[in-house]
Queue: 2 jobs
Job 1
Amino acid sequence: MRFLFGLLIASFAAAASVEPSHGHGDTFHEAVSQDDQCICRTDLTVNLPERSLQAQQCTCQEIQRILEEGVQLKLRVAELEAKVAELEEELTERPNENEYATLESDGARWRAFWWYKPNAWPTDVLQVEYGSCSRDDRLCFGRLPRKLQEDEAEILATDSSGNAYRWAFNSINPTAHAAWLAFHDHVESKVTNGQTWDPRVISGTPPKAAQDSFVYRKQNGVVSLLLDDDNCDCLSTISMGHGLCNTAFSTDYAQANVYGVDQLYDSHCQPPLPGNQLTLYFKESDIESPGE
């Protein structure tokens, strides 16, 4: 497929690259009136693919048409090149996607992109691009697929205590947007006491506080993530990596150099711990109800 696209682009590029230029016999001449009905010089020749126009009397409208055809060809080449780049990205982005666990819940089909079962920790809780993990890996610190659009994307989180929370991203909500920058674009971000971004509770216990703060930054060697009410461990929903509190961490809530995940429902000040389990899914599609 890439070879065929390459041939197509090459043919369009060859056509688009033929332009009139100054010279002798096969070129435009500067002596062309600005009047749309002007008469060109008698030695004008314009070369196009597989044909040549020799004109003793040609109008400027025809010259304009020829030039516009060249511009349109160039635009088409650019569109095809962009499409090829997009298809190549799709081919290389998700080699293992169809292997990832799926879940049907709350009227939608979800596919896993991040999971953790007790194991060693890498240096970043969003370390790899989507599609980099194998289904049988004990942990996958993956990011959202690049194809997702912010205002259409949703995630579902499930933990080892039976909680399941669902969030919809929103580009005009600073808290939700900061989370998008982290999960999708791999950009460190922080919002403190911003706009509430509460989940929809599918099962388990609802959060105890409004989720209006988000941070994704490095702490004790691991880039960690926290969604809670004030950027400081307590009353969180998503907490992964090292304990976080403001610009550092607090020993009142977490031990130094202990890495893991928290349960989605945090009744007080539970830090991320290595014994917990967490899986994150993105919404792949809605499920039609019977009769729809």
Note: Helices lie at 2-16, 60-93, 174-183.
Job 2
Amino acid sequence: ATASIGSLTSLFTMALLSSYRFYSIRHVFASRSVTRKSAACMIVTLVAMGTCVTVISFVPIMGRYENYFLNGIFYPGNLLFVGAPSKSQHIEVLEVYYGRLSSKNRLQWNAIRELVGGMFTHDTTGIHGNDMSFYGNAGVCVFKYFVTPNDPQHVFSLAVLTFNTILCGVVVMSYTGIYLLSRQTMGSLSSSRDSGARGSGLERKISLIILTDFLSWMPFIGLCVLHYLEVYDGTPHYELFSLLVLPVNSVINPIIYDDTIGSVVRWTRDKVVGVVSARVTTIQNELNMSRKGSGMVEKEKSYTETTLK
């Protein structure tokens, strides 16, 4: 849940910041003073964002909603329930033992646990199961975006994925608008060398942000759709996207816009060039000194030979 909060908060923040930047550039001559209305809108937006992120992250692990998110129960050492059987698989075994269950379509997990426990009353230790929860479906605890129509949480996961896609679209459209407005503004200004350089730098940053968002989210969304349609099993790639691609993309976008990477590259380049230049200068001075020394030795040798003659 904590990782989901971080990822969703980053995506929300990027969408809000990109929208605000686009609005600021679009209304560049509007008043920048903070009014009560704007402050209230900002507070309401932040509260709504925090509430939405919290609800999305914690609802799947709340016990009262387990019938919508619990995929199965794992019984260690039990040969009757192999693996982590789902609700339908539990019902098949229970009907063999108890007979036909009239309310099986409305049977909840609490009732299933009681019925399973009743099957092992002769065993003094009973039977104990571990829930296969929403965040425990993969080798690591991550949000379950890869779902199929048989998963109880497929509506929730698809809704969150759709919402994230909309937020990603807001980021891309906002930065595209900023890109177009910046080109229009730079074209209307005097084509000085400095303004052209700033415009080119801004265009490169925005293009890079749009490219990273597209390359990160579009393949992931496509893979989620293919997995849901059961055309392709994307499970082996889930950890790669959830733990590396999407988080890194969310973190790197502000760095790109803030020119942090460019500053680090320029600083590193200047340091390397400075060290190399200093070393080259030292070597050249040593060679010059060596040549001068060799010349002096030759002159002394020639003088000595002339004197002896």
Note: Residues 260-308 form the longest helix (49 residues).
